[in-house]
Amino acid sequence: MADAFYLQKTQHSLLMKLLYLFLFLGFHGYSQSPHGDWYSTLRAADLPLVFHIQKNGKKTIITVDSPKQKAYDMPAEITLLKGNQIKVEMKNIGVTYEGTFYPDSISGIFQQGAIVENMTFFNQLKESEKPRRPQNPKPPYNYKSEDVTFPHLKDSFYLAGTITIPKRQLPSPAIVLVSGSGPQNRDEEMMGHRPFWVLADYLTNLGYAVLRYDDRGTYNSQGRFSSATTLDFASDAESAVNYLRNRNDIDPNKIVIMGHSEGGLIANILGARIDKLSGIVSLAGTSIRGDSILDIQTRLLAQSIGEKESQMELTHEYNEAVWNAVISASSMKDLENNLELISKKYVKRLMKKGFIKRSEKADVIKSVEQTILNPWMYEFIKYSPSKDIPNIMCHVLVLIGSKDIQVTSKENIAGYKNLLPQNGKLQTIKELKGLNHLFQKCTTCTVSEYGQLEETFSMDAMEEIRDFLQEIWK
């Protein structure tokens, strides 16, 4: 959920680059110099940022720091415009910031994918107010917590995680938590929230062991993230199940895979693959093909930030042409030439409508190629859960929020209901009213709001999970 700033992979889709490319701010008639160091915090991600703006001969140059991520002197481009306006771009990760500079501040709008936020940078470092996260667990804990490593089943690397084990009921039933898309740590930490930590604490206090782990190539886990596909991540989760089955304090016949977003899709795959799995819990998991998910998602994200209908329709045509090319391609090599032709056609139309400038043409085409000619995105678009859901052999719980604009409840709940087999297992499929993609009670229910909400994970959702586990593990 990016190399420098976290966003889920789905927010790096083609439309994200095109829909949100430009923000035009009003004219302000001051004449100041923006040179110096400027400090702010992106509230949606609880992420401090620093602009270093310097004079280099006749040019003004900029670098950006993200201290929390230990990323310093990241390259960026800066343009000084009329009326004290400033534009900063980090094209490789889709970041733009447009604002007006004053003697003591720069006030403007930050944008990356679906995150659009008013941000003011100050020329002195100010203590940023930490977001309240009342659900974060607090000691003393009524269970044992152990940092562990476990081997991958197929490849020669180790994954790192944390297992929390109740003090009673040994051997324990156990749950493997599988995160959504994008490089994430064992807590699925995003926008100041740590939902997997909250879930692990809640479930372990109910008497269940919980294993959560860092994605491959992320934080303390080995392996390579950048070239991995959903099927690779599924093999990582299967390795976690195998590890639990070989622990003396875990009941090998009582294991559930619980996945969020892409993790829910992975739960589908392993529900069909792993023998004697107790059950799966799909939290905002998908039941329809990847291109359909992106089609719905990008429209809703565009509407959530007030994108113009005319631009939205043209970009949708562009997306659809690209997705159809991916579906029909026999390989990424086969797709490459066709993708270039499609991009040239639609970029020309976007320029004609004034949605992009001629100077941006090459960047847009390159961005589309980098997004689509990526193993994860290529496979995600082509993969259909209809291959696996009919073969799920265990109990199933599906939860999706009614306000989720990333994995919509209507289409995906219908998909699960149509595809799940009649096999005598418990199958609970529910839409949870008023909850977003992170299972928070939301107001605007946009992606930008995630980090502004204090709630990390709704008790309504956790109680549904509790009831399901109690039913299958009576």
Largest sheet: 8 strands, mixed
The structure class reads alpha/beta
Please give the number of β-strands. Answer: 17
Number of domains: 3
Roughly what is the average pLDDT, rounded to an integer?
A: 88
Structural commentary:
The chain has eleven helices and 17 strands. It is an alpha/beta fold and 474 residues long. It has three domains: 9-122, Lipocalin, CATH 2.40.128; 143-288 and 384-472, Rossmann fold, CATH 3.40.50.1820; 290-382, no CATH class. Strands 10-11-13-12-14-15-16-17 form an eight-stranded mixed sheet, with helices on both faces. Strands 5-6-7-8-9 form a five-stranded antiparallel sheet, with no helix packed on it. A hairpin with a 6-residue loop joins strand 10 (143-151) and strand 11 (158-166). Helix 5 (290-304) runs antiparallel to helix 6 (309-328) and helix 7 runs antiparallel to helix 8. It is globular, with a radius of gyration of 23 Å.
Which helices and strands appear, and what pairs or packs with what?
Blueprint: H1 14-19, E1 36-42, E2 47-56, E3 59-66, E4 71-75, E5 77-81, E6 85-90, E7 95-101, E8 105-112, E9 115-122, E10 143-151, E11 158-166, E12 172-178, H2 195-205, E13 209-213, H3 230-245, E14 250-260, H4 262-273, E15 279-283, H5 290-304, H6 309-328, H7 332-352, H8 361-372, H9 375-382, E16 395-401, H10 409-419, E17 427-432, H11 459-472
Parallel strand pairs: 12-13, 12-14, 14-15, 15-16, 16-17
Antiparallel strand pairs: 1-2, 2-3, 3-4, 5-6, 6-7, 7-8, 8-9, 10-11, 11-13
Helix pairs in contact: 3-4, 5-6, 5-9, 6-7, 7-8
